[in-house]
Design goal:
Arc Repressor Mutant, subunit A; binds pyridoxal-5'-phosphate; Aspartate Aminotransferase, domain 1; four-stranded antiparallel beta sheet; 16 helices; 481 residues; 17 strands; 14% strand; alpha/beta; Aspartate Aminotransferase, domain 2
């Protein structure tokens, strides 16, 4: 009997087209940031239909090779080689500890505002990325139209039109929150401070991701609290097994967590993991303080949902601000304190009485006029491109064996250098060359991360930045020599 071997069916035309374009991208013929031919032109070039090209471009978008930019076309997405190793997860901490990094943090903060230094340390985007002129005009017109706002005390929990805009934006992100549940604060810093004070007393223990944003460590120290550092994956965030263990063995009073683009790792918890985290919080009856300040800075189409989206019983306090997206200098933030709303309102009163209405109104007018989405799109694109350029430069210039995070949002990178590099020493040497960095020890209470550093990629790329990364690489290699 003659056996016939069935030929595998050839892939659909759009997949063939997608594969051939993917090859061009991988070979570097089409480079990151390049606009590829329009759908119509590609259809003509390849002699296929417009819908075939559209399908092929969608496949490449889903594979992460292309991004569609409204009214502009399709662009090749920045990508890094897959073989770059990522930072390793830290070991769990056995018992809570008080924070004692203050001197180094104070020194670091002093350098962060030194205009003579190139700021690769503090997580501050360059001022040129914000619509300062437009905001200045709005601020001027609010002040001219209502000078009484200057002559009156701003005793308030919130300026309502602003709270409505904030609630509306969360609704777009999949979280239904009432504008009456929010307290406007002086930056996210005040929001976090109020949240911690609402649920703790001195000596209590807070669980948090490690490495941790050092600002929260400072606040924790000022409130005389202890921390329990929970291992965190640089891609998917908190290790839930370690967290469960920590909850089971310790009297944890609250969890501080950044599910979307954690600072400094850039990790983003998948939705299923956020849901599991929420269930775990319910099981042990623990409140969460969610810092969502980078949530709007996602590189994919969809904004990640905050943990608050799963909150059924008001245990998640959602904190954020416009500090990374719009106007760090106006210091406008917010907190949705859930079941601690009354307590947080009282604390807000004792902390700062209210947030200047003139500033809240300026931002509300900006949001209402509709320029914010457009601005967010352009700032996200800028951060993504800058992160890519910084990552490539770090890989070119840092010692072999350097591990690097690959965030899909935000604008900071976390680098783990070979074990013998001391980034505190690197910080001191770099300052002599007028470069400020954030050494790893700032991000833990346990003297971890001696060989790590966080890099602020919020500065537009250019020769001085490239030179600074080169210098950092040389200084690190010198330590190894
Ligand atoms: C994770 C995180 N939370 C909060 C803040 C403070 O935000 P704000 O400037 O709005 O007070 C920062 C600032 O760097 C931050 O990185």
């Amino acid at each position: 009997m003659i056996q016939t071997i069935a030929k595998p069916p050839s892939p659909p035309l759009y997949v063939e087209l997608a594969d051939s374009l993917q090859q061009l991208i991988e070979q570097g013929t089409l480079r990151a940031g390049h606009r590829i031919p329009s759908v119509r032109r590609m259809a003509l070039q390849r002699d296929v239909s417009i819908s075939t090209v559209l399908q092929a471009y969608t496949v490449l978008e889903n594979r992460g090779y292309l991004e569609a930019r409204p009214q502009s076309g399709y662009y090749v997405r920045p990508r890094l080689p897959f073989e770059i190793p990522e930072p390793r997860m830290a070991k769990p901490m056995t018992k809570p500890a008080y924070v004692s990094t203050s001197d180094l943090t104070a020194d670091f903060l002093a350098q962060a505002s030194n205009p003579a230094c190139l700021q690769l340390g503090a997580a501050c985007p360059d001022a040129s990325l914000f619509p300062a002129q437009k905001l200045a005009r709005l601020l001027g017109s609010v002040a001219r139209n209502e000078p009484a706002l200057i002559g009156r005390y701003a005793v308030n929990w919130a300026y309502e039109p602003l709270t409505r805009e904030i609630a509306r934006r969360y609704l777009q992100a999949g979280v239904a929150l009432s504008h009456e549940e929010v307290v406007i604060t002086v930056g996210c810093t005040e929001a976090l401070n109020l949240a911690l004070r609402a649920v703790t007393k001195p000596g209590d223990t807070i669980a948090l991701e490690t490495p941790a944003y050092f600002g929260i460590l400072e606040t924790i120290q000022s409130l005389n609290l202890r921390v329990l550092e929970i291992p965190t994956d640089s891609r998917e965030g908190l290790c839930l097994d370690a967290l469960r263990e920590a909850f089971a063995r310790n009297d944890v009073k609250a969890l501080f967590v950044m599910p979307s683009f954690q600072n400094p790792l850039g990790s983003c918890m998948p939705d299923e993991k956020k849901e599991k985290l929420y269930e775990l919080l319910c099981e042990y009856d623990i409140p969460a303080i969610e810092d969502d300040i980078y949530g709007d800075l996602h590189f994919s189409e969809k904004r990640p949902k905050p943990l608050k989206a799963w909150d059924r019983d008001g245990r998640v306090m959602l904190c954020s601000s416009f500090g990374k997206t719009l106007a760090p200098g106006l210091r406008v933030g917010w907190i949705f304190p859930g079941r601690w709303l009354d307590r947080v309102r009282r604390l807000k009163f004792t902390n700062t009485l209210g947030t200047p209405v003139i500033l809240q109104k300026t931002i509300a007018n900006f949001l209402r006029d509709g320029g914010y989405d457009h601005h967010l799109r352009s700032i996200r694109r800028a951060y993504q491109n800058q992160l890519h350029l910084f990552s490539q430069a770090v890989l070119r210039n840092f010692p072999a064996g350097t591990r690097l995070s690959r965030p899909h949002g935000g604008f900071v990178l976390w680098a783990e250098l070979p074990a013998r590099v001391d980034t505190h020493k690197l910080h001191i040497d770099a300052l002599k060359q007028h470069i400020a960095i954030a050494p790893g020890v700032l991000f833990s209470v346990k003297e971890r991360y001696r060989n790590c550093l966080r890099i602020n990629c919020g500065i537009p790329w250019g020769e001085p930045v490239e030179q600074a990364v080169r210098t950092l690489g040389e200084l690190a290699k010198k330590q190894l020599a």
